[in-house]
Amino acid sequence: MSVAEGYSKTSRVLRLIRPGALIGLLLTASAAASAEPGIQTPSIFDPRSTPASGIVDYSNLVLGICFAIFVIVMALIAITVVRFRRRPGDDDREPPQIYGSNQLELAWTVVPIIIVFVLSLVTVRTIFSLQIDEKPPGWMPVTAVGHQWWWEFQYPERGFTTANELHVPVGRATFLTLQSADVIHSFWVPQLAGKTDVIPNRENHMWIEPQVPGLYVGQCAEFCGTQHANMLLRIYVHTPEDFERWARAEAREAAAVPAAAAGRDVFLTTACINCHTVRGTVANGRFGPDLTHLMSRQTLGAGVAPNDSDHLKQWLIDPDHLKPGALMPAMGLDTQAIDQLVAYLETLE
Ligand code: CUA
Fold first, then answer.
1. Domain limits at 273?
2. 181 CB-contact burial (10 Å; exposed 0-12 / middle 13-18 / buried 19+)
C-alpha cells in the first residue's frame, strides 16, 4: 500500500471519530484492523501500550460488573413477571402484605457497598498509575506543543524538533510534557494512552510505553477551531536500533545541496524564515513546523495530504485549498520560484 493510500484510509477512519460514530467504530475496529496492513485502527479495545492496556482492563472490569448487575436485575424481573402473573381463575383478593425483610435489606446494602469499595480501589490505583508529574529516570522526555492546527514535538535530550509525527522506541517509556501555543487541544492516540488535554499557560503530563512496533494514529480530541478535524497525529514506534538511526538523522543540520541553491535563496529571502526553522540556515521561525528534515515526514499539514512533490507544490501555491483556514498564507510566488522552492524543500531529508 502506498503512503497516499495509507494516508487517505487513515484520515477516512479518523474522520469517523465523532460521537455518533464512535461506538460503531469501536465495535467494528477489530474487523477493520486486518484490512489495513501497516496501520493500526485506532480502537481503545486494542491497546498496544502500558497505560492504554491498564485503562482497558479497568473499563472491562467496570463493564463486566455493570453487565452482571444488568443480567441479574433483568432475570429477576422476568421471573417475577412470568411466575406471579395473573392467571385465569385467580380470585380478586389482595395477596398477603409483607413488611420488610432484614436479610434482603442487608444483602442489597452490603453487596453494593462491596462493589463500590472494590471499584474505588481499582479506580484510585489506575489513576495513580496514569498520573506521573515528574519524569522518572531512564524515561525519554518529549515536549508536545499543540498549535492551530498541527503538533510540535521537541526532543530536549537530542536537541531537535519535529512536527506531527512522533517517533519513539518500543518497550521504553516516553514521558510527554503537553503545552499549547494558543487554544485548548487534546492529545489522543487511542491504542497508546487515554486522552490528555493540552491547555494554554499550563503543563500537563502523560506517558506511553508501546509494546509493539508500528504506526499508530490519533488526533486532536478537543475542538480547537476550523481545522480541528485535520489536526492528526501519527506515532511511529520503532525498534531501539531504528529509533537511534532516525534520531541521529534528525539531530543533523540541514545539508546545503548545491543543485537546490536557487530554491534555498527563495526560501531564505522570503517570509518563510519568519515562521519556519531550518537548522543550519538563518531560518529560525517558531510559529510554523520545523522544516529541517521535512522529507522524513509522511504527511503535510498535520496529516491533510501525503508529503510528495505535487502536494508540496499545491501547499505552497495555496495552503487554504488543502486546509481551509490554515494559518500559513499563500506566498504569491511565481511558478518558477515555487518549483525552485519545492526542489529545495525536497533536499531536506
Ligand atoms: Cu487541536 Cu482540536
1. 258-345
2. middle
Do 218 and 77 lie in one domain? The reply is yes
Distance between CA atoms of residues 21 and 277, nearest Å:
39
The closest residue, in CA terms, to atom 1 on ligand 1 is: 185
Q: Is the CB of 222 under 6 A from ligand 1?
A: yes
Same domain, 231 and 283: no
Q: Are residues 131 and 214 in the same domain?
A: yes
**Ligand 1 mean position, distance from CA 174 (Å):** 22
Q: pLDDT tens, position by position, for the chain (349 residues)? A: 444 454 454 444 444 444 344 444 444 443 334 334 456 568 888 889 988 999 999 999 999 999 999 999 999 999 999 998 888 888 878 888 888 899 999 999 999 999 999 999 999 999 998 888 899 999 999 999 999 999 999 999 999 999 999 999 999 999 999 999 999 999 999 999 999 999 999 999 999 999 999 999 999 999 999 999 999 999 999 999 999 999 999 999 988 888 888 889 899 999 899 999 999 888 888 999 999 999 999 999 899 889 999 999 999 999 999 899 899 988 888 889 899 999 999 999 8
CA of 226 to the centre of ligand 1 (A): 9
Q: Kind of pairing, strands 214-220 and 39-40?
A: parallel
**Beta carbon of 152 within 6 Å of any ligand 1 atom:** no
The CATH number given to whatever domain includes residue 315 is 2.60.40.420
Asked if 328 and 192 sit in the same domain, the reply is: no
Q: How many domains does the chain have?
A: 2
Quick one: CA torsion of 311, 339, 337, 271, rounded to 10 degrees?
Answer: 40
Task: Please tell me if the CB atom of residue 231 comes closer than 6 angstroms to any atom of ligand 1.
Answer: yes
Helix (H, G, I), strand (E, B) or coil at 116: helix
**Residue 272 domain-assigned (yes or no):** yes
Task: Determine, yes or no, domain membership for 24.
Answer: yes
253 domain residue, yes or no: no
Q: Which atom of ligand 1 is nearest to the CA of 148?
A: 1
Ligand 1 neighbourhood includes 338 CB (under 6 angstroms): no
The structure's pTM equals: 0.81
Q: Which helix (H) or strand (E) holds 147?
A: strand 140-147
